[in-house]
Amino acid sequence: MTRIDIVTIATPSLGDRSYLATDGQHAFVVDPQRDIDRVLAAAATRGVTISHVFETHIHNDYLTGGLALARATGAAYHVNAADQVAFGRTGVTDGDLVPVGTMLVRVMATPGHTFTHLAYALEDDTGRVRAVFTGGSLLYGATGRTDLLGAEHAPALAAAQHASARRLATLPGHAGVLPTHGFGSFCAAGPGRPAPDGSTIAGERQHNPALTQDLDSYVAGLLAGLDEFPAYYARMGPANAAGPAPADLTPPAPVSAAGLSRRIHAGDWVADLRHRLVFAAGHLPGSLSFEHGDNLVANLGWLLPPGTPLILTGGDLEQVTRAQRDLARIGVQVASAAPGPPDGSLARYPVADFAGLAAVQHPVTVLDVRRRLEWAAGHIAGAVHIPLHHLPARLGDLPPGPLWVHCQAGYRASVAASLLHAAGRQVTAIDDEFGRAALAGLPVLAGPARLASLGHHPQVRAAPLGRSRQHDALRI
């Protein structure tokens, strides 16, 4: 039996994984990200030739590197024959068998995440199924969301997802499950389950809702758990069908401190990559806090208006380079950069925790910028709710006076505070875990029973919080 190695190429900033599988000489790749140099390096390290590239579906959360990788290596590019694309490919359909050296890839139709979604079962030279690349179908303790092609299709695709998961479950129990999504990606429906050592078909039979629940229960649960997804997703599918160009990772042009101020005045976005607490303590007026890390891409990509020039600042050169690569995966091109801390006259705003909010003795508005389902699961009584991704368009809806802004753990609150401060508002960012709000003595309303009251969001007076007034302009 030939040894088969499977290399995982993780992209934590998007919550996705790509895979390189090799028998020691030949290799194929599944769902590569746009920065294909990582894949090429993995193949070169092992001295193997990439002869095939497979896409499980037309992705909605990132720009694929599949076409660029196939062109760079001369590999066959396998995409569902039913997908309408603007480039040459090797069309595959359910039941096709693709030999790759001593390996055999079996194509399986698994609609649900998209109408034309495919999975790929990997067999060795004895016919033993070693693993299945499930894309956005069967994840670790979850499945892919079914509303990315439009909410009107979500129920039918959810039913298809249930059937697809059960088809995959007929594979041998020992087969490894290798999904593309499900590691923090918004493409997953539900939180899934941690699986640091991976998962198998047998493991998913025990834990995956699509395999433990009947059709009606599964569909109802999946649809109820769907929240909004990043706005840039709408651009990814069409771009992938058109065939993305290779990522341009040329270092962005430098810009001076004076130039940054002019760019902000002109309407460009200046994203400061430093830690959010460092940003709050001193930043270029009008710049925005987007601490570099795994939360950067989804939040900045979601908020950045299409076509708006983006300048990165605050971090060192290495940090800027990493952020540029992260953003290139969703098609955001960095216009220029100014590494290092800002110079000149700096702006600042205070940072506190929930205990600090509970101690405030004057009226303030508490702004909750979490998403809809987070709010429904529990929120501070009387808080104003505007999800972060709606905030830029609704700054004028907020009542006058001091604002205290929070999210689940502090990152989104920092982004929101920077937007508010740049707009001239008096703001305090709450850098704290939401679970500490009740421990600090703040009244937290929790549970599905609150869903009926989401139409109005009263202004909060932090001491005492029980006294409030309605601010009728604020609605979900």
Total beta strand runs: 28
Shape estimate: globular
CATH topology of the largest domain: Metallo-beta-lactamase, Chain A
List the strand order in the largest sheet.
1-2-3-4-5-6
Radius of gyration: 24 Å
Oligomer: single chain
Q: What is the terminal-to-terminal distance?
A: 58 Å
Give the % helix.
25-40%
Total number of helical segments? 15
Broad CATH class of the largest domain: Alpha Beta
The pLDDT mean sits at: 91
Largest pleated sheet: 6 strands, mixed
How would you explain this protein's 3D organization?
- The strands form seven sheets. The chain has a six-stranded mixed β-sheet with strand order 1-2-3-4-5-6, with helices on one face. Strands 7-8-9-10-12-14 form a six-stranded mixed β-sheet. Strands 15-19-18-16-17 form a five-stranded parallel β-sheet, with helices on both faces.
- The radius of gyration is 24 Å and the shape is globular.
- Helix 3 crosses helix 6 (215-224).
- Mean pLDDT is 91; it is low at 449-476.
- It folds into three domains: 5-242, Metallo-beta-lactamase, Chain A; 253-338, Oxidized Rhodanese, domain 1 (3-Layer(aba) Sandwich), CATH 3.40.250; 351-469, 3-Layer(aba) Sandwich (Oxidized Rhodanese, domain 1).
- It has 476 residues and is an alpha/beta fold.
- The protein has 15 helices and 28 strands.
